[in-house]
Amino acid sequence: MKWKGEWQKLAFVIAIFLACFYLPIGNPRFNGALLEAFRLIKWYAREHVLLCLVPAFFIAGAIGVFISQASVMKYFGARANKALAYGVASVSGTILAVCSCTVLPLFGSIYMRGAGLGPAIAFLYSGPAINILAIVLTARVLGWQLGVGRAVGAVVFSVVIGLLMHLIFLKEERARTASQDTYLEADAASSRPLWQVALYFLAMIGILVFANWAKPQQSAGLWSAVFAWKWRITAAFAILLAFGLWRLFKVRALYLVLAAIAVAVIGLAAPQYPIAAFAAGSAALAALTFFGGAELKEWRGQTWGFAKLILPLLLGGVLAAGFFLGSPHSTDAGVIPNSWVQALVGDSPNALLHILGRPDGFHLGWLDAIWPIWTSFFASIVGAFMYFATLTEVPILRGLLDSGMGQGPALALLLAGPALSLPSMLVINSMIGPKKTLTYVSLVVVMATITGMIFGAIV
Hints:
Number of strands: 0
Number of helices: 22
Radius of gyration: 24 Å
Largest sheet: none
Distance between the termini: 66 Å
Structural class: mainly alpha
C-alpha cells in the first residue's frame, strides 16, 4: 500500500482518537456547555427553522424559477449601474427583518442567478444588519448614539465591503461574467408579466416579515400594534399567496380550500400555538406544489436544493456556537466563561487583571495603550462567531454595558454580530469558497474594529 498522501488521514484519525480519549466528561463547565449546545439548537429549531428558514427557502427557490438570470444581471450583475445595485442591496435589510442565517438562501439564490459578488455581498451584510426595528430598539435601549452609529455604520459597511470584495476578486468576477454571457440566451426562467411575479413575491416576503415580527419593549405605539396583529397580517398574505397559486399557477381551488381548512382547524384548536398553524401552512404549500405545472415542480426542486445545502451546516454551526459561547438566553453556560468576555471588553483592563490575580491598582503601560484597539477587535471577533437572532443582540449588549463594556466595543459587536455567525460562515463557505469567505469575514471584523475605536474615542 502506498502511503503517499495517507499521513494526513492518519494524523486526523489520531487527533480524533485523542480528543475522544481525553474528553473532560464530568467537568461542570464542559457538561454545561454540552447542555447549552443542545438547548440552543432546540430553541433555534422552534423559533427560527419554521418561521424564518422555511419561508426563506421558498423565496430563494422562487427567485431561481420566476426571476430570469437576465433580470438579476441587469440590476445586480457586473455591468449593472453601480449606484443602483449597491443602493438597493445596502438598504434591503429595512424590508427584510431577518437574521444572519435566514438571509443565506436569499443571498445564494441571487448570487447563483448571476448577481455580481459585490452587490450580493452588500445584500448579504445589509439583510440582517439594517433591521429598522432593531435600530429603533438599539436607540431606545442602548442610547441614541449607538442607534445612529449602528444605522450609519451598517449602510456604509455594506457598500464598502461589497466594493472591496468586488475589487479584490475582480479577475474572477470578470471571468464569471464572461461565462454567464455565453449561455444567457438560454435562460429558461419564467416569462410571466412583472406584476404577477411582484404579487407572488410580495405575498411570500410579507409572510416572512410579519411571522417574525418581534415583540417590542413598549406596550403601545405602531410597533406594538403591528405585533398584536402579526398573525392576522400573516394570514392575509397567506391568502394572497393562495390566490396567486390559483390564478397564476392554475392550482385547483378544491386543493386550496382543503389546505386552508386543515390550517384553520389547527389554528382554532391551538390558538395559543400559532406556530402549529404556520407549520401546517408550510406543509400544505409544499404539498400543493405537486398539483401544479412544471413551474411549481421546479420551484419545489429549487427550494429542496437550498434546504439540503444549507440546513445541515446551519444546525452544526448552531451546536458549535452554543457549545463555545452559550445561547442568547444563557448566563455563563458556554465553554468560554462570560466573566472572561466581560473582562476583555471593559472600559479598562482592571477586570482582566483582577481575574489574573493582580492586586488592585496594578497597571501595565503597554496593556493600557493597546486596550482600546484590543476591546473593539475582541468584540468584533465574539460578535462574528456568536449567533444572534433578530433583536437578541440588544438585551445582550445592555447586560454587557451594565457590566462595564465600553461604547466602542459595543458598536463593534453591533456591526459584526448580527451580520455574521459561525453557522452563517459555514454556509457562506459552501457557496463562495474559503478564500472569499475568509476575506469577507476579515473585512467585517477589521472595519468593525476600526469603527469601534473611532466611536469610542468620540463618545
